[in-house]
Specification:
The complex is a heterodimer of chains A (230) and B (225). Chain A is mainly alpha-helical and 230 residues long. Helices cover 79% and strands 0% of the residues of chain A. The longest helix of chain A is centred in the last third of the chain and has 43 residues. Chain B is globular, with a radius of gyration of 18 Å. Chain B is an all-alpha fold and 225 residues long. Classes of the chains: A mainly alpha (230), B mainly alpha (225). Chains A and B meet through α4 and α5 of A and α7, α8, α9 and α10 of B.
């Protein structure tokens, strides 16, 4: 089994990510200062923003692996793409659950057609299409190619969707970290956010590697079964 | 045979097929007229002026009606393995895609003009001072729509969910088309100056070009065995 080492790496990353997530929760609840205007509810930001980062990062992995998969036809790239898509969908769901909770207090409404909300919701549906296409093809090879096409078309359309929904309406808080004049967050808040970003990324990579080795093992079993029958 | 000749051959074949069966145009056309009738009963015309909401209704009719026809792009050819014949011919797959997209575009554009005519007839809609620009917006939007629709129709018709899968795949990607298309049309219907819609039309054009290019590149991976 060549994937033994990957599995170990996955376990290490996932445990580190999980420990980081526990530490993050302690920081969010007891350590980081309360934001002046929004109050306690702002603390959900440390879960929300790292999840959003992972959601879009995972979709980048999906698109990249899908494109190279169509080009080279290597099984492993499809397994990587679909594993990243599963993780990505989980984190997109977290973004969509935490966002409205915050919005209810900060904006006074659960949902608005604000660009980043809209884009994340559409990303969730693109992920949904990705899995539905895979699940509803009788020929697995075809399902892999179809889902890769969905991933690539989605990734190429996302910049245009983003432009159009920004043009449509903008209400989301403007970025407080990534901007030319440097972050305006309180240093303690920035540290908490960084811990969040790091641990969610590690957690995602750990889960991703585990999912990937599982996909590889499933594939191997299928190949051997076919050989045994032949 | 030149590349454009091959595209044209596919386009002509599809249009001829449609001329003889009239299945898809009849379905889409009837849908457009009937949707117009239902919209008439769904609007309280003493509360809202149809002129104000017509742009959104026109585009939604186009999207839903278009899906009806575009979703069946490969339906007729799937029988008796006719499409296998097209695929085994030396025609490049992207030429097949462009030909089919062009044929779908002709069908959908006819329906788009019919939708506008239905709204003009049923709701007394005035097209404003630039009807040509409304036609251009509908053309660019239709082109982007049929490009994505043709690509994903090839996907969905090979799944056991069939056409029910098509809206789930296509609708999220159509957001830019709906936003720019509806706002351009609404402004034109409200007699606003051309300068206010130029940007929207450019974005509609960019969307159409991207959709056609993406479809032409990815189509071969959908149809290859």
């Amino acid at each position: 089994m060549p994937s033994k080492r990957l599995q170990t790496t996955g376990t290490v990353l996932a445990v580190l990510g999980a420990l980081g997530t526990v530490a993050l929760h302690w920081m969010v609840f007891f350590w980081t200062p309360t934001e002046a205007t929004m109050g306690v509810i702002q603390r959900i930001f440390y879960i929300h923003v790292p999840s959003a980062w992972v959601a879009f990062f995972a979709f980048g992995v999906v698109a990249l692996c899908s494109a190279v998969y169509l080009w080279l036809g290597d099984e492993r790239l499809d397994q990587a793409a679909s594993s990243a898509a599963e993780g990505g969908m989980v984190f997109t769901t977290i973004v969509l659950l935490t966002g409205p909770l915050w919005g209810r207090i900060a904006w006074g409404t659960y949902w608005t057609w604000e660009p980043r909300l809209t884009l994340t919701l559409l990303l969730w549906f693109i992920y949904l299409g990705y899995f539905l296409v895979r699940a509803s093809t009788d020929n697995p090879e075809r399902g892999k190619r179809f889902s890769a096409v969905v991933g690539i078309a989605g990734a190429l359309d996302i910049p245009l969707i983003h432009l159009s929904v920004v043009w449509f309406r903008s209400l989301h808080p403007t970025p407080v970290v990534m901007k030319p004049e440097g972050p305006t967050l309180h240093p303690d808040m920035l540290v908490t956010l960084m811990v969040g970003l790091l641990s969610f990324t590690l957690l995602f990579l750990g889960l991703f590697l585990h999912r990937y080795t599982l996909a590889a093992a499933t594939h191997l079993v299928a190949v051997r079964e076919r050989r045994a029958q032949a | 045979m030149t590349y454009l000749g091959q595209v044209y051959a596919i386009l002509w074949k599809d249009l001829l097929l449609e001329l003889r069966t009239r299945e898809r145009v009849a379905a889409m056309g009837a849908f457009a007229v009937l949707a117009g009738i239902l919209f008439n009963f769904s609007i309280d015309q003493t509360a809202v002026r149809p002129q104000d909401i017509a742009a959104g209704l026109i585009w939604m009719t186009l999207v839903f009606g278009g899906l009806l026809g575009v979703g069946r792009t490969f339906h007729l050819e799937a029988q008796d393995g006719a499409f296998q014949g097209v695929l085994t011919s030396p025609t490049p797959k992207d030429a097949v895609f462009l030909g089919k997209t062009a044929a779908n575009f002709v069908l959908l554009y006819v329906v788009a003009l019919l939708v506008v005519a239905v709204f003009a007839l049923f709701f007394g809609l005035r097209l404003g001072t630039h009807p040509g620009m409304v036609a251009l917006a509908l053309a660019l939007g239709s082109l982007g729509f049929v490009a994505l629709g043709t690509l994903f129709s090839a996907v969905s018709s090979n799944t056991h969910m069939g056409e029910t899968l098509l809206p789930i795949l296509v609708f999220p990607l159509l957001v830019p088309m709906v936003i720019y298309g509806v706002s351009a049309t609404a402004r034109l219907l409200a007699d606003r100056p051309i300068a206010e819609v130029a940007g929207n039309l450019r974005m509609l054009g960019a969307f159409a070009v991207l959709a056609v290019a993406v479809g032409a590149v990815l189509f071969r991976y959908v149809v290859e065995e």
